[in-house]
Amino acid sequence: MKTTEDAQTARSSVGNCNGCPHRRDLLTEGRCTPGDVCVRAMSGRQIERFFRVNPALADDYAGDSFWERRAIAARYLSQKKLLPLIQDPDEVVRRVLAYRLPIEALDALIEDPDREVRVTVADRLPADRVERLATDPDYLVRQYVARRLAPGRLFRMIRDADRQVRVTVAERLPVESLGLMRDDPEPEVRLKVAERIRFEEVGALLADPDWRVRARLAERLPLEMLEPLREDTDPDVRAIAEDRLVRAEPSQPE
């Protein structure tokens, strides 16, 4: 049995052809169908199907009062109609713009209040322009910056407030600068440092409080540097160091 809510939903999903500017052409030509392919319906799927069939009409709906109609139309808008929507009050519309605007126009969205908009901008901007987002208040935006910024420019992000951002920095930072991250408060960051740091700069990592960091060093350090790890407090670290040293000993003749 249908409820009142079901009936209201059904009515809202069927656009009213009365007063619709397309009833005399598109409707008769089969390019719109009430309840299925309809720009007047309060249904994103129907609106999407309408613009898929009639993409040239998207420009007519760039200023529509219904946010979802504007957002869907924005996927099909001509480039000249995109720029005026940068100040659109709805973030869903601006998210579409972030994907579709020409690269040279993306600077206008760098300080957009919506995180998803700024993430898309950080993902699309050329590497030499993405640094402007390195101090973004949202960690996810900065994470994208850390993935795309030129390695030589990552120095400014080694003290980022977010652990995962710093992990990414430690993965990409030039090895010459990795020593600056040896004392990071997060073991996940120091583990990445231990995987790449130059042997002569290992320093305090040999006594790192996290056994995983010391184990990684035991796996990659030259044999002549393994002696301290042979006496490590963790049995797994000692075993790795000992195993490498034993395997390196020349075999005794029988």
TrEMBL record:
Task: Please give the Pfam families that the UniProt record associates with this protein.
Answer: LRV, LRV_FeS
Question: Which residue stretches, if any, does this entry annotate as coiled coil?
Answer: none
Regions crossing the membrane: none
- Residue intervals of the LRV FeS4 cluster domain: 16-60
Q: What is this protein called?
A: (Fe-S) protein
Q: Which organism is it from?
A: Thiorhodococcus minor
